[in-house]
Write a structure and sequence with these properties.
There is one protein chain. This protein has helices at residues 11-21, 128-131, 245-256, 258-264; strands at 7-8, 32-34, 73-75, 92-93, 102-107, 111-118, 123-126, 142-146, 158-167, 181-185, 214-219, 236-243, 271-273. The chain is an alpha+beta fold and 298 residues long. Residues 1-20 form the signal peptide.
Length: 298
């Protein structure tokens, strides 16, 4: 078994803090635009509700609105964490549309920056270390692409400018603690089969279990520590098992020693996953927020 060469950072502990530190957003769209009514939580009364054998709870009929793009419907609330296609159970390339919250972050100046996840129509969560060197500069050159599966095609991809970057005030660049940042999008994202928000973890809940639970990590990162090939052409995925805090600490101690291990590890603000040789999320690590495999973190 390999060492735990990477910590898969959890949203559970720090995201609420980061969000609370963010300044109030400017005027924003209060509704959502979707092109699939199954994404909409709104309770819509259908005229057929009174007909026999047509329960109103099973009906959801929306009318396209002029304030949404053509082919999109307006609703007040959307479901999260439900891909239009279930992920493949194997390590390798991602099945198209099975990770619709995956974000591709790039800059006109720096090129490919890393990955992130879409949490709602205006906000993408990423690692603070990906953007910390540019938070004090105008972020207008940073763009987020949603719906991207291969870097060779922009079909059905929405590219949005970043208007603000919010970094957790407790971020420690040396030991990567509180390593969370939020990218505020200048314009809202419209949801579709290949672009959907992920669910946030439940605050205070521990995802370190006695049974074997896998995290699914996705991104365009390097395929080898010795080959600088990020971003790769096609979105990739790997399953990594969550391990106990004690096992993680022991593994890190073997490599780094007790002092550095204590400095780097920050339970309960993170969890460890991995331990399998050549399978991790640290090779030019995109931000890989963990999701439970059936089907996502809820």
């Amino acid at each position: 078994m390999g060492t735990f060469g990477c910590i898969v950072w959890s949203l559970v502990y720090f995201l609420d803090t980061t969000m609370s530190q963010a300044p109030p957003a400017s005027a924003s769209r209060s509704f959502h635009c979707v092109n699939d009514v199954s994404l909409c939580k709104d309770v819509v009364i259908d005229p057929r509700a009174g007909e026999a054998n047509t329960p109103s709870t099973q009906l959801k009929v929306l009318t396209p609105q002029t304030d949404c793009p053509a082919g999109f419907f307006k609703c007040n609330s959307v479901v999260c964490g439900v891909p239009s296609v279930q992920p493949s159970p194997a390590n390798g390339y991602v099945t198209a549309n099975s990770a619709p919250w995956q974000a591709y972050i790039a800059s006109d100046t720096y090129g490919y920056i890393g990955g992130g996840v879409l949490v709602n129509q205006y906000n993408v969560v990423t690692a603070a270390h990906k953007v910390s060197n540019i938070t004090n500069k105008p972020p207008v050159s940073i763009k987020v692409s949603l719906g991207m599966y291969t870097t060779a095609s922009t079909q059905n991809v929405q590219v949005v400018q970043v208007s603000q970057i919010w970094q957790n005030s407790g971020y420690n660049a040396q030991y990567l603690k509180n390593d969370v940042a939020i990218l505020r999008l200048a314009t809202p994202i419209n949801f579709s089969a290949n672009i959907r928000p992920i669910c946030l973890p439940t605050a205070g809940k521990s995802y370190v279990t006695d049974s074997t639970t896998n995290c699914l990590v996705t991104g365009w990162g390097q395929t080898n520590f010795n080959v600088i090939d990020a971003p790769t052409r096609t979105l990739k995925q790997a399953y990594v098992p969550i391990v106990s805090n004690d096992k993680c600490t022991a593994s890190y101690t073997q490599v780094l020693g007790a002092a550095y291990t204590a400095a780097y590890l920050d339970f309960p603000g993170e969890l460890c996953a991995g331990g399998q040789a050549q399978i991790d999320a640290c090779t030019m690590a995109d931000l890989h927020w963990f999701v439970e495999t059936v089907p996502v973190l809820r």
